[in-house]
């Protein structure tokens, strides 16, 4: 059984930073696996609804209905039929039909930002671009703002949040050529130690849940 975001009771506790960080790392590890297969898989529809969380809050990438398989020597392809989820499609795909591993990196960046700040991207379902959300994060989420939102974290924890936001913004760059590869993303996250000051794991039911309920912050 899988719960949608809307089905999660409002009493569900907000998710603390250590759990958010665990989810971010898990998604990135999953995407690394897909992109590094002998025949790479481009997911093409990374969004909160396609990330399932088990009872231990371990994320699983789901729904490969739009995924593409690349040949060993292939790095890009083009399509005239653009399908996907508004707010998560890379601009080169949305406007030119260009597909590459960097298409997934763009979507991953938006997921990282959403999980890190606890706010939903693209609340207007008719808005195809996430630029307003990205610009808002870049402008508002200064270190001072991070410290006010995550008041219970120590210096190391705040550094984790800052790096994750910076990483999400890099992944969501308009120019695909400046987005980091998935190996670099995973290496960056692995270089950040687990924050021991925010390791409380809130209760999660035994059923898998979609990731969309990650808004809000745990109050201390």
UniProtKB/TrEMBL annotation:
It is an enzyme of class 2 (transferase). Gene3D superfamilies: Transferase(Phosphotransferase) domain 1 (1.10.510.10). Residues 1-192 form the Protein kinase domain. Its EC number is 2.7.11.1. Keywords: ATP-binding, Kinase, Nucleotide-binding, Serine/threonine-protein kinase, Transferase. It catalyses: L-threonyl-[protein] + ATP = O-phospho-L-threonyl-[protein] + ADP + H(+); L-seryl-[protein] + ATP = O-phospho-L-seryl-[protein] + ADP + H(+). It comes from the Eukaryota. Pfam families: Pkinase. The keyword Hydrolase does not apply. The keyword Transferase applies. InterPro entries: Kinase-like_dom_sf, Prot_kinase_dom, Ser/Thr_kinase_AS. One of its GO terms (molecular function) is protein serine/threonine kinase activity. This is non-specific serine/threonine protein kinase. It comes from Aegilops tauschii subsp. strangulata. The lineage of its organism: Eukaryota, Viridiplantae, Streptophyta, Embryophyta, Tracheophyta.
């Amino acid at each position: 059984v899988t719960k949608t975001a809307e089905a999660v009771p409002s009493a569900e506790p907000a998710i603390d930073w250590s759990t958010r960080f665990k989810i971010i790392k898990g998604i990135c590890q999953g995407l690394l696996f897909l992109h590094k297969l002998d025949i790479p898989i481009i997911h093409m529809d990374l969004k909160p609804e396609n990330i399932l969380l088990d009872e231990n809050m371990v994320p699983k990438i789901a729904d490969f209905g739009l995924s593409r398989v690349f040949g060993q020597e292939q790095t890009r392809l083009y399509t005239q039929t653009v399908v996907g989820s508004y707010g998560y499609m890379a601009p080169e795909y949305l406007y030119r039909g260009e597909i590459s591993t960097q298409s997934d990196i763009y979507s991953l960046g938006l997921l990282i930002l959403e999980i890190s700040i606890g706010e939903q991207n693209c609340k207007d379902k008719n808005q195809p671009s996430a630029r307003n959300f990205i610009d808002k994060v870049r402008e508002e989420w200064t270190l001072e703002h991070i410290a006010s939102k995550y008041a219970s974290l120590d210096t190391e924890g705040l550094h984790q949040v800052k790096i994750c936001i910076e990483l999400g913004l890099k992944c969501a760059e308009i120019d695909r050529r400046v987005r980091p590869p998935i190996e670099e993303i995973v290496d960056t996250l692995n270089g950040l130690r687990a924050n021991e000051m925010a390791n409380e794991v809130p209760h999660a039911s035994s059923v898998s849940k979609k990731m969309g309920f990650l808004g809000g912050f745990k109050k201390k």
